[in-house]
Design a protein that fits this description.
Layout (H helix, E strand, L loop, with lengths): L1 H18 L22 E2 L15 E2 L7 E12 L2 E11 L10 E11 L2 E2 L7 E2 L2 E6 L10 E5 L8
Parallel strand pairs: 1-7
Antiparallel strand pairs: 2-3, 3-4, 4-5, 5-8, 6-7, 8-9
């Protein structure tokens, strides 16, 4: 049953990527992740107060405590409105509590999508959503596919 659910979730995502011409294979060299983006580029923000990121090697999912983040991102596509990468979800099990917990790694596909103008930066757009798809083993409490809203400026506006 779990395999059927995983296939039911993955097939529409892979089909959407295929329709847009994106691939999940191959490799892409990441540009300087923390460098300022030039005008007319598409960027992503991970935490408030951080600079715009272009093809980052990592994205923090839980800014308050850093207990969940995406690492070793290898971008296969970075286009306006849609980007894809292979990487690793790094998750703290918080056992017995978060400060004493252990980090575990799970293979993932990451899709950034949506587009919004970045306030105060004419011509610059940012992705508005992040979907993570776990492709291998995962904790029981974590779904195969999860979508998160992204902040759309370094100030959260």
């Amino acid at each position: 049953m779990k395999r059927v659910l995983a296939i039911a979730v993955l097939v529409p995502v892979v089909a959407a990527l295929a329709v847009t011409g994106l691939t999940l294979g191959g490799s892409a060299q990441a540009a300087s992740a923390r460098s300022a983006a030039s005008p007319s580029q598409t960027v992503v923000f991970d935490c408030l107060g951080q600079h715009a990121l272009v093809r980052p090697k990592s994205i923090i999912l839980t800014c308050a405590d850093g207990n969940a983040y995406l690492a070793k991102l290898a971008w296969t596509s970075w286009k306006p409105g849609l980007a894809s990468a292979k990487g690793t979800l790094v998750l703290n099990d918080c056992t017995p509590y978060c400060a004493a917990g252990h980090f575990h790694r799970y293979p993932a596909i990451v899709v950034l999508w949506g587009s919004k103008a970045v306030p105060g930066h004419p011509g610059e757009h940012c992705y508005t959503k992040l979907t993570e798809i776990l492709t291998g083993q995962r904790p029981r409490h974590v779904p195969v596919t999860e979508t998160f809203p992204l902040i759309t400026s370094s100030h959260g506006a």
